[in-house]
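Predict the 3D structure for this chain.
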Amino acid sequence: MKPDLPVRARFAHVGRRAACCAALLLAGLTLAPWSAMAAADAKPAADAGADKKPEGELPPLPADKTIKQSVRVGGRTLSYEATVGTIPVRNAKGKKIAEVVYTAYVVPGGAPNRPVTFAFNGGPGASSVYLNMGAIGPKRIQFGVDGDAPSDAAVTKDNPNTWLDMSDLVFIDPVGTGYSRSLEDDEQTKKDFYSTEADIKYLSRVVYDWLVKHGRLRSPKYVMGESYGGYRAPRIGYTLQTQMGVGVNGLVMVSPYLDPAAIGDGDALSPLPWMINLPSMTAANLEKQGRLTPAAMADVESYVRTQFVTDFLAGRSDPGAISRMVQKVSGYTGLDPSVVAKLDGRVDIGTYLREVHRNDKKIGSVYDSNVTAFDPFPDSAERRSGDPILDALLAPTTSAMADFVTREVGWKTDAHYEALSYSVNKEWERGNPDDKPVADLRKAIGNDPNMKVLIVHGYNDLSCPFYTSRLVIDQMPAFGQAQRVKLAIYPGGHMFYSRAASAEAFKADAASMYSGK
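Done. Predicted structure below.
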């Protein structure tokens, strides 16, 4: 990362920092898990809506367009309608101030009893293409695993693990992402759309408006969010429930950025950041040895709750504390004990990603540390390259989605599809330190005895490590029923669904929730 970045935007693994969801903000909220890594050496992106013009100067977006398609899933052919459309956003006076573009996949004839799932990715500044064409949509493009390259053909295939056989799907691109756009000037756009509170408010209204527009208020409803979308999901669910008058049957949080308060600064007194990261590092080491299982992970999970905390807080008051930490941490991570000793047993994310692949002159991804790329500057004292997954996924996902919308669906526009908007992320108002999606999650579950929650992670993810959610859930009430909030962890990283077996297991867990089992 360039040293001249603002402190609040520095990536969590720089120096001695550690964090969930990759970007550590002193104000309490993160940048995108992708943003700070990308910003390390990326030039400012030229977003289609970077310089907002008055409404009359923008060419109109096309009318909603629907086509018929089919997908092979579960041994049968499922026919559905794919729609690209817009939902207007209006201010208190009724003036249209933005247009939100969505992609919906609906199986005809199922309403009003057929479930509908609203999906959001994160960032802030990410479109919904990753959940759409990577995880649960009817078509998918491969990305996110070792060997994927930006020059891979942007050709989609049937997704055998699509959720379309159990729910209609609506993928929503927030303002400034995808083709969604503000119709206001830059200053007013930031105020109305690029802040935590405004974001939750208008996106909740978009969900409500889609339900009304399509006559689906009686359908079972689910909200799904990945990464920063995992911050959005419980808050949107609670807002729908208490302000929009829309009950939500379930929440699905994928690799979520769930609790800003748990992150802290790696230089602070709290052991939490180090506790949260060590199990994911251990999982990657176990996977390389072919030994990754929940049983194998039990040892490190027990260690970080017990002896690690004691030795961490004892520090130099106990002569044996640091040496015990060095021995245990090097054993769990597979790092050279001499490297771990230099860090007093506190291994930050950046050091781990570089040192664990140092002999191969490669660099690991913060989203899955076993996915690597050649380090273009292996002799540099600091990392000077982007992320192996982040840099590889932008081209195929952008091309695949733009091709689907403009060529297959025929929703013609000359705007650029913003899969990742650096300008939105840069302009984002970060909220405050006591901003906790967990509080809204607790209240939403408490209000509705039938609501279910599924939180899922990949073992190897260091951008939003699974252990944050483990600790959060263990501190929550039971709400009268075991497994109302279920945590599932799969092989892989932040986008574990790029692995077929993990995507299949994820769908099976979701199917249990959707069916009420």
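The radius of gyration is 22 Å.
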